[in-house]
Task: structure prediction
Amino acid sequence: MKGRDSVPNPSTRRNREHGQQSLSEQRRPQEKVRMTEKPKKKTKKTKDIVDRHCDYVEGLSDSPRDYQEAVALFMVSTLTQAKFTLMSLPDVPYSFDEESGEMLLNTCFILIGKTRVSRKTSSVDKAETAILSIAPEIKLTDEFTMETVEKTFDGRKRCVMAWIQDECLQFFTAIRYKDYMRGADSTLSKLIDGKGRSRRTSGGGKREIPRGNSIGILFASTTFLPTVFTLGSFRQGFLNRFIFVWPKLGELKPKKRKASSPEQIKEMRKILYWLKALYEYQPRKGYSSTPVQFTSDALALLNKYDIEINKRIKEDKTDSLKTGWLGNAPSSLERLAALYRIARLKKSELKSDMIFLIAEVKDVKKAIKFMKKANRWADKVINAMELKKIDEDILRLIELITKYGEVDKTSRKVEAMMGIVNRHLGQGKTKLEVRTIVDSAIDRGIIERFNERKKGMKKSATWFRLL
Result:
């Protein structure tokens, strides 16, 4: 006798005749069906203008990608011209002028690397030629004085000027040694923050840069640059506003002499057209800027980074130079995240009026990735600076031992009492700084420290001996 399952089902036969599936066929696993389907094409991921610029330059040069990323961010930040801004709760102004609490998106970069092989000059040239072709009126002159800056801002409102130099050593040397540049770093800090500047002229008049005007800076120099940085430029905050870019050099290739391909020229023009559209963007009528806001998840990432920085600052008992730079890092992170979001805008969006722009987690993550590298680069700069400072102080220590010491008849070496040397070495320095200099000289085998009671002394004393 046949089982129930073997009895033909008329409804099944009828469904098949009409091209329909039976109930059992509908319940059948679908994996077999999927195997016969053609694989779906993956949608091509659209790249933002920062990545497109990096890819374009990589096809022309072996310059480090980190340089190109900084250059692209600088161009975006400068060409926004304060038309995109940030506003966080701590920055809400205590003023009738609500615009005074906006955080502008201008950036300051210094590209550091060895002469020629790092290609830092060609990287800076890309930004300079792009800005000159799109907005030549916003580029500061090469010869920098505060008077030229004041004249440049005459009659301008909410303008971000681009200050570009492919070799900035002369400027930082002038800050350190020239009287006419005294206080320039402090004034520039206010301009970077968009806080304006006013002063009295010798004729009794008044020169003023209104609030809301600012500058973006793109510098480059050799690895010697940190040795001319001053403590004051870090302590009062000028150098803390910079992101130093000092990457490792990859495989060096000969400079390409061939002409660009039609595809490269086409991509270059597309990038320039996008940057031009950014410069020509206008906020919604009645608004001075389009605010960039963060999603709750993106804001949580920013807050987490802020907490980590605060923890590191609290744990630094010596109040080192790095502490000041870290204090400005959260603001730099917010700016970069906003810039990465702007870089994702389509050219058509730049022609529309936006009430606000929303930055997402992926924008913050890209900014954090860049800031982690910037943190290491800042360490390299400060270490190079402090190493040079220690060398100068050790030379001073040797000079003082020679000046106040005498040649010991037994050892035939110059010896001087520690108390006398420390008193002269410690002028303008803390006890910790003096001890650091002395310990460094001992560790390098330049001097030795010992206790001895010399002839005619009532008790022993501590001495330094040149080795």
